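Hey, I'm writing a tutorial for new members on how sequence and structure tokens pair up, and I'd like a real worked example in the thread rather than a made-up one. If someone can provide the structure for the chain below, I'll link this post from the tutorial.
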Amino acid sequence: DDDDDDDDDDDDDGGSIDREDVENEMYQSEPKRGSMQIPLSQRPWCSQTDPRAMRSHITSNDDFYVRNHAPVPALDSDHHEIGFERVLDDDEDDDDDEGASAAAAGPAAIRSVDLKALRENFETATIRSALQCAGNRGSEMIEIAPTAFDGTPYERIRVGMMGNAAWTGARMREVLLRAFPDVGAFDETDVDAHHVEFEGADGYVTSSPLRNVLGGESDALLAYEMNGEPLPPDHGSPVRAFLPGHAGARSVKWLRHVRLRRTECESCWSAQYYKGPEGESIQRMPLQSFLLSKRLSGECVKIKGVAWGGGEGKGVRWRLKRRMP
């Protein structure tokens, strides 16, 4: 009897799964990272841009901060496709939606697009814009009030989860109108009622109001280049959503699905995370500024810094005030 028990125990040990082995396999193909990034976590990789790299107007791809939620997906640029679909409301059935979609879509509608089609069938646009994580300056937030960053690697975030780059791709507005032609006839109420949902190949899903993408002043892109080069793996290769002026959480990387829906995305990333003080989803980012260096020169103080107008597209003016003793 004792021998039988020992055999059973051996079988159990042999069939167990080692968590570390599984994690090692998941992360075995991670890309190389720039030496000037300041690591926050290794798995998944999250880092800050070194402030020294921000002295240039454009942040290099190697130095640009990274916010990953999972291992970097290994995608084939030549065969990767982005699908487009509508999310039905609870009070709509498949038959009704099928008829409506067919009438609205017309013969020119697309249901998927690959990188080659994005390059050849849509006008190329380049937008120079900052990208900033919603949690930037997390260490300062903690000083004001307790946050979800307490006790995590992100309590060390200073000003570095931000960078400025030249993003190139197809304008998202043009692609959406090709996929969902009826959107062009939406009135103000319809536009305000809809969200665009983005899903990445890493499983990350979130959404942004349709107005943020469809508005005439929107520079939202399906981006496939960063600073004149194909998107690096850490930044969403081969295609990512890019919404200038919005929290980085809305610019989904490794994009594989775009959905038009009447409600905000229900994923945990939208329902529980990246929320403002009143529980609202963080979309447009506020004005941001910080000093990079200051040096006394005679009776003058020479300073260098970064200022960004945020998601409202407003200019920034620096002004120094002498503090009286």
